[in-house]
Every structure is written in C-alpha cells, then in structure tokens.
Amino acid sequence: MEGRYSNVMRGAYWYTQCKPYFGWGYDPCKDKSCYDTCVVMCERSYEFKEPGFLLHYHSCNLNCKFCWAYKVRTKRVITITPEQVVKSLLCKLGALCNDRFIMRARVKPLSIATIRLTGNEPMLQWDHTLDFLKILDDQSKISMLCQHVFEVSHPLHQMFPGLLHNLKILIQTNGVEIGRKDSPIRVEDLEGIRDLDVTFEVSFKGVNPRQFAWLADRPSDLFECQCAGFERLWKIRSSNLHIVAELGINHCENVKKYPELGVRIIDERGEPIDFTRYDSSFKEKVLTYTNLSEEENEFQEFGEIDKARARQVIETYSKRTGQIKKRCLPSEF
User: Fold this and answer.
1) pLDDT tens track for 71-80
2) Percent of the chain having pLDDT more than 90?
3) How far apart are CA 98 and CA 117, in angstroms?
4) Phi/psi of residue 281, nearest 5 degrees
5) Cα 22 to Cα 15: distance, rounded to the nearest angstrom
6) Would you say 316 and 333 are in contact if contact means Cβ atoms under 8 Å apart?
7) Domain boundaries, the chain
8) CATH number at 3-262+273-301
9) CA dist., res. 229 & res. 122, Å (int)
10) Residue 304: strand, helix, or coil
C-alpha cells in the first residue's frame, strides 16, 4: 500500500544542536539525485528530547486555522511504499554517518532515537502506516531491505537494521478517522506489533465541540469522533503501545524571538479560550483514563501557516505595557 508524503523543507535538515561545525539547515544530501524526492527529514524531537527522523504525511481531514503545515497541502505529493520508506531511512543513516561534518557534531547519527509520523493526518493512510510499522517490527525484514541499499561489506550493514528496529515511533493524529462510527480502521491490528515502541499522541483541537468547530474549522460533531478515537486506542494500550492525550494547540504564552510579547488563543468573539471547559464526552472518554498534556513550546510563526487564518485565533499583548491587539500575530504587533 503506497503512502502520500510531503517533503516539507528538504531531503534532510539538521537542527542547531550540530553547531559550531555548520549552521541551521546543513544538508548532507543536497547534491544527491534524491534531494527532491526523499521523505525523510532530520529533527530534534521535542517529545523525547532526542535527535530523530520526521516523516510528513500529505492531506488532512481538518482545516485548523493555526495549522503550521497549511500551505504544505498545495505542494507536490511524494507517493512511496512502506518498503521504500524504510530504504530511505537506511539511506539517510548512511549519508549522515558518511558526512565528515555531522560525525564531528554534538548530535551523532547513531544517537537517533525516534521516528515521528506527523502531518497533516497519518490515519488517512492507515493501511500504509500499519505495513510500515510491521516492517520496522521485524528486524529480518529490515536486514533484507538493507541489502538493497548497501553492500554486504559495508561497515554499518549489520548495525542499521537493529538501530531502526529499536527506534521509538511517535504517531501524531487527531483521532477523528479512528473514532468514526463507520471507520475501516482496526486498531486491534496494532496488537500484532510485538517489539516496536509506539506512542500515539492524539491531538485535541479544543476540549468541547464549540472550541473544536472554531479552531479546526470543521463540524462540531467530529469532536465526538476525536474522543471516541482516543478511547479506542486507550483500550488496546500495552507495554509497548502508549497513548497520550494532548491539547494540540500551541497556546504557551511565550513567543519565540519576542520575549517582551505574549500570545493567547481567542474565540470567535475575540475572548481568550478557556481550555478547562471540558465537554461531558471529553471527561468520559478521555479524562477518565488520563490527564490532558499541554504543549509547552514557545509560539512561533512557522513559514507554512496561512497568516490570515492564524490571525483569527490569536491575540498578542505586551508584557511590559499590557497593551493587547486582537487578531494580531507577534510579528505584526
């Protein structure tokens, strides 16, 4: 089953933890023929505080006003099989390990700990995602694919299959497709993943139907699907399958690069949203099982947001004077 991906930035990029040897955005693959078609990107995982790989899925079932990847939906789609994704991961590892600058950096390729599946929405491509997880769960399959990427005599040939097999997998989903009454997704199939460490992070767009409809720009009844999707996942959790409920709205009031400013998420009336006004379904199907995690990253205006849409849900204020500007991004204050 082929999957649809976006190359959101470039074939590979590495965060500033690799300084002082090179600046932000150094790419060891920039001269390779696969530069525009590779789906594997490098990142510093905020969730696990470790270097990791990023796979960015194409297309979404929501239309969030604050979506950092909003414009990505208009970019070219990369269609690829699960086997090809694993080959790309192996290829990327080889490129990183053979690069003299990265091997001198503070972040080592062999210290990579995670693969993050994000987007847009991975669960729109459930069959592809499940097949990908099954390959990573089987070290012998990775070894077989490794033979198509490297010569058997390659010094890292024996190391890479075990490395990929042991990576933590983070899947970021809104849960809507899982929770639909007519959903074709069988989350019970995840019980066949025996060894792989998998975390599903269900990203809630508000804590009641009204907030969801305003922020996700979709019918309010889909909020119930979010809650039901989380509950379905929670009921099959195991020692290697972890489920997290997260408020998927970066509402930390601090602003990256603007320490004197703060931001708040606002509703259609321009009033700050209260993310403790839980709906009864949210209490029953989410909070009964776990606490709601909240993003702690500083607010920043990613390059792929639609500023006009993001402006609808943001108010910016001065921490020094208290001045507030409704529907204003920090860079416009």
Assistant:
1) 888 888 999 9
2) 62
3) 25
4) -65, -40
5) 10
6) yes
7) 3-262+273-301
8) 3.20.20
9) 14
10) coil
